[in-house]
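Annual report, structural modelling task.

Input specification for the zinc ion complex:
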Amino acid sequence: MTTDHAKAKAIYESYLAREAMLAPRRDYARRVAKATGGTGQTPVEPLATMGSKGGPLVCDVCRKPMILEGGAYQGLFADEGWRRNPTKDWTSWISGGMVVRIETNGMLFLFHGYPGRSGCVQIADKAERQRRADFVERPDLMEILDQLSAYFAAELPEQNSDAVLNDIYRVLFKYDPGLGVNAP
Ligand SMILES: [Zn+2]
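The model returned the following structure:
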């Protein structure tokens, strides 16, 4: 194997490892978005139980759970409200608003607030815009993709496609918004 192929192989292996780590988190992001989605009130159970280790989903900025609004549960964190009333399909308004977002890398992000108006999401969006503006693609990117293509042609011809190269580019070299604090 040439030095270039060995380099390309190492990159391909790091792509496979990263992809294996991301795939369940992507799936998790879709499940959380579905469980908490819709208009109007939000089901309390997913807010209280779909976070890391079965705990509450927390805000990616302040790391606190969503806050319930209305009635006897006014001002409580979702997990505390759920402890007091663990009834399936119970829904609540969210105090101060909530944003559930699947980022460009497929990861879940959750914030207090209303985009462009108030809350943690405003802080997050400002910082994210700055990071995207500051992001610089690595200068040897084209060379790396060429090396990958040559390596695939020699060793793994079935992988030598634009789709695979695009996916490697997307997972390893494009701007990455991160993993988010909530995990499956
Ligand atoms: Zn927050």
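Residues 59, 61-62, 64, 111-112, 120 surround zinc ion (CB under 6 Å).
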